[in-house]
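thought: user wants a sequence for this fold. calling inverse folding tool.
action: design(structure=
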């Protein structure tokens, strides 16, 4: 009997895509998940994601081309992640499709039109949803898989439900639809998973893949500043908070000088605006605050983080992360079979 259940756990996100390992590296803007990280994840057999939000057309083209150059094998896939809330959403999706991207993932808002764009270019569109209702709508619009992101995730949040509860709700809803027309739509669960034990638990609840953001920030290949990674490693649970983002959603972030000002209502309003978001409260400049943090000024910028960051104790290479996940996943299933 093959005891390597992780090796058997294949994820097929769309009919036109090959099966991959069931790990999706979450898209992380701005410039946190770049070509280097995405290609490393793809080389290990997962889905590596370049964060497109906040990039220019040329920057995105360059990122996708770099990732393709760094792709050493055909084991995994490369995709982009883009916030629907971004003004440049359509342009960046179109650019990625022209570059031959394998997958487009979108969140922070919902678009019906993007599914027709995907159909025209034969590019799978994977929505990030936070409710059974939106998962069902996505399925009707042609989604071949969905990412179900809970309130435990890093970044913008569409719900405060935890991953287990939300996953069970969405699974039940999609199973009911499948019973009617026989079309299977795999679920990728996101929010709070940092190791193979977490992934095994989500598989038992019906996930066929898991998207992880925070774990991959603490990888050697993630190009964010060393100060950003050190802050991730040094904070305590009470430093993980939620703030209200100018896009109108809650967002999970680290308590630092900047987020303290947001909580206190003392954050400076932007003096100028590039209208990078379709709708913005202008409470502060989201893009600028993310860029400041990414560059290493970790007190004056906004730092997104997942709820379970404190469970991660070390920076590993992407390959080591995959090896560790595989061991833990197999152990979790071996223990539950005893
Ligand atoms: C630093 C950071 C930046 C993020 N940026 C984005 C983003 O640009 N777009 C998006 O859809 N999700 C974003 N996310 C969410 C991740 O893609 C992923 O779904 C989430 O982090 C999963 O939860 P985890 O961090 O507990 O693994 C971000 C998360 C983090 C930690």
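)
observation: tool returned 338 residues.
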């Amino acid at each position: 009997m093959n005891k390597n259940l992780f090796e058997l756990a294949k994820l097929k996100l769309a009919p036109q895509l090959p099966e991959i390992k069931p790990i999706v590296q979450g898209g992380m803007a701005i410039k946190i998940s770049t070509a280097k990280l995405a290609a490393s994840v793809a080389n290990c057999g997962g889905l590596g994601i370049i964060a497109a939000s906040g990039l220019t057309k040329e920057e995105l083209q360059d990122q996708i081309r770099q990732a393709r150059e760094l792709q050493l094998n055909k084991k995994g896939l490369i995709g982009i992640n883009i916030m629907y809330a971004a003004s440049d959403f359509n342009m960046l999706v179109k650019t990625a499709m022209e570059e031959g991207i394998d997958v487009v993932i979108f969140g922070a808002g919902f678009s019906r039109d993007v599914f027709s764009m995907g159909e025209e270019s034969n590019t799978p569109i994977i929505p990030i949803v936070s409710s059974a209702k939106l998962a069902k709508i996505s399925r009707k619009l042609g989604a071949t898989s969905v990412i179900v992101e809970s309130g435990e995730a890093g970044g913008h949040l569409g719900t405060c439900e935890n991953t287990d509860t939300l996953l069970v709700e969405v699974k039940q809803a999609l199973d009911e639809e499948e019973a009617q027309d026989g079309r299977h739509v795999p679920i990728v669960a996101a929010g709070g998973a940092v190791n193979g034990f977490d992934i095994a638990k989500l598989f038992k609840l019906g996930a066929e893949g898991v998207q992880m953001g925070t774990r991959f920030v603490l990888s050697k290949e993630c190009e964010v500043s060393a100060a950003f990674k050190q802050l991730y490693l040094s904070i305590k649970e009470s430093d993980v908070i939620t703030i209200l983002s100018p896009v109108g959603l809650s967002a999970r972030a680290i308590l630092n000088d900047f987020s303290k000002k947001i909580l206190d209502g003392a954050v400076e309003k932007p003096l100028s605006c590039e209208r990078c978001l379709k709708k913005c409260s202008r409470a502060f400049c989201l893009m600028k605050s993310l860029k400041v943090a990414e560059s290493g000024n970790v007190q004056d910028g906004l730092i997104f983080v997942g709820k379970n960051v404190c469970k991660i104790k070390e920076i590993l290479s992407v390959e080591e992360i995959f090896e560790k996940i595989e061991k833990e996943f197999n152990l979790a299933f071996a223990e539950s079979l005893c």
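thought: summarizing for user.
answer: Here is the designed sequence. The pocket of flavin mononucleotide is lined by residues 26-29, 32, 51, 53, 81, 83, 107-108, 128, 149, 152-155, 190-193, 211-215, 217, 304-306, 308 (CB under 6 Å).
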